[in-house]
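thought: fold this chain, then report.
action: predict
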Amino acid sequence: MRYLEDFKIGDYFESGSIEVTEDNIIAFAEQFDPQPFHLDPIFAKQSFFGGMVASGWHTAALTMNLLVNSGVNIANGIIGVGIDKLRWLRPVKPGDHLRIRTEVIEIRSLAKSEPKSENGILILHVNTLNQLDTLVQTFIVKLLVNRRV
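observation:
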């Protein structure tokens, strides 16, 4: 388990990969983003995308799975306090294999006077890539991380 003091700016973490299937795309869309280009392969062929694509929110959820399993291994779990600059750069399609590359870009200790001062903020730049190393999503996430007390 890692605490705030165990991270340094420039640390990189890479994940394994996860396959995106048409069934997963449809199941996610039925529950969370029921648009026809996520649900219906025939409609999707006529759409802007020219075929089935995952919801951006599905890509974000898959990225969370990859982040949890990436080796970041934060002592109190991955507790997000904010996300910035979320961008979906390329559509994710059935058969894509996603992985993430994460970099620590900032570390902040909370002042003793602040609530939760036993914690700090870890800021990560998270890139989601497909099997061709094409960037499909990017964002900056702020995480609450325990300090060694």
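thought: worth noting. Helices lie at 22-32, 36-39, 41-46, 56-68.
final: tokens above.
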